[in-house]
């Protein structure tokens, strides 16, 4: 009798074969997706203790104007790197944040742990200054196929010893504005290292990736960021993305680059949630306090 039932069931199933896309949807609903929390609390003077998960920060300085909050990020970071010409920026611009102080005192206080790149932009005097203070220098002049940012992210991932990498967040300053090929290269790095938390920052905005493999909860630090924001599918089209907490929420909405993308959106709540079938770029404005 049981065997007969299962034959009947099997036969019935033959006539209602679910499409691969509906199977994927069912599978997605059955597997509870992990939640990923995001918070720009690194822009606050002190990081709240109850911050979940507690992150370790690495700061990466690129060859562009240093954002005004660079000293703050420096203090939060456990590892500080300069990508090639980024060292010139640190050397030239860090003393400008402390006009009362002697420039060389400031330079000694803000000594990077590592300078890595193809070393075609760093000035000799700057390289010698930091090397004499004990900064590790890694010359990758032979590699002309990856950017200096890429080289530095690889260093953080593979070589930085004594750094808790289980909950690491890489803060990249000087990543936006300026030359467009560099900006696109920088965005490409966050897509290429999609399993790492990497935040690209300028004075005006920040960008990070929301991998499709998680549900995302973004805790808005309203004192320092927002309200302008955007969600952009940069690599592949999204068949459906869903959000809460935005003025123009997405409701299983399809998006694609060259079609609909969510720019000039507005954050309406302290918590924004995002779920998508593809990796999305999240961007939010930084307040000019
Ligand atoms: N104008 C910019 N806008 C955004 N990012 C930049 C800009 N300039 C440099 N960067 C970033 O800083 C890193 C180091 O800059 P640097 O000028 O040393 O690079 P580079 O390889 O010498 O550049 P290029 O040879 O293409 O001029 C780059 O890999 C890039 O990520
Ligand atoms: C297809 C292709 N396009 C551009 C470059 C040039 N390039 C890319 S990264 C880099 C290093 C910059 O520090 C250089 C020179 C390349 N190699 N391959």
TrEMBL record:
Q: Where in the cell is it found?
A: Cytoplasm, Cytosol
Gene Ontology terms: biological process: thiamine diphosphate biosynthetic process; thiamine metabolic process
Keywords, ordered alphabetically: ATP-binding, Cytoplasm, Kinase, Nucleotide-binding, Transferase
Query: Domain of life, per the record?
Result: Eukaryota
Check the UniProt entry and state the signal peptide residues, or none: none
Asked if the keyword Nucleotide-binding belongs to this entry, the reply reads yes
Q: What is its EC number?
A: 2.7.6.2
**GO molecular-function terms, A-Z:** ATP binding; kinase activity; thiamine binding; thiamine diphosphokinase activity
Q: Which SMART domains match?
A: TPK_B1_binding
Source organism per entry reads: Gossypium anomalum
Q: What class of enzyme is it?
A: transferase
A cellular component term, taken from the record's GO annotations = cytosol
Q: Does this UniProt record's set of keywords contain Ribonucleoprotein?
A: no
Protein's name according to its UniProt entry: Thiamine pyrophosphokinase
State its role.
Answer: Catalyzes the phosphorylation of thiamine to thiamine pyrophosphate (TPP). TPP is an active cofactor for enzymes involved in glycolysis and energy production. Plant leaves require high levels of TPP for photosynthesis and carbohydrate metabolism.
